[in-house]
Amino acid sequence: MAFFKMTHPGYEKWQKTELRVGRGGVNTVMDKALRTMLDNWEKMKRSEEDEAEEDANQFEASFYALMQEVRNWVEGLEQPPKTLEEAMQLAKIEELVEQLPIEIMLNFETELELIVDGEVREEDERYD
Asked: Which superkingdom (predicted)?
């Protein structure tokens, strides 16, 4: 947690958000995917050379699992956003973004834009 705490200005807010998981209006599946992705991010950042590849693969898999949950949630909305800007203004997305490490924001926004546009990234086109 130290890296996240030191580099992410929303760390204190993230701690408070974690307490809300499971209460009304919160997508607990998405929250669990976020928690897993953040845990894998921390693990990857701390990994030794012999574990680095495996930890990076776990992080990547958990990032795309989170994005699948975001896709499921967005597609289930009565009025899905039509633009990336609209999507980024959704309360749940804002809550997610506040917790994301800045280093993966561009990847998150790129994937969210694909979701909004109704496109699916092919597995071999994912980030390496």
From this structure: Bacteria
Q: What is the pLDDT of residue 10?
A: 46
Polymer length of the chain: 128
Model pTM score:
0.74
* Chain centroid, CA 43 distance in Å: 15
Alpha-carbon radius of gyration of the chain: 15
Q: Where are the domains of the chain?
A: 28-125
Residues in Cβ contact with 25 at an 8 Å cutoff, skipping those fewer than 6 apart: none
**57/6 Cα distance (integer angstroms):** 24
Distance spanning both ends of the chain, measured CA to CA: 24
Say which residues have a Cβ less than 8 Å from residue 27's Cβ, sequence separation at least 6. Answer: 69, 73, 92
Helices (H), the chain: 2-7, 11-18, 28-46, 49-75, 84-88, 91-99, 105-116
pLDDT digits (tens, 9 = 90+) for 18-70: 333 333 445 689 999 999 999 999 999 998 888 899 999 999 999 999 999 99
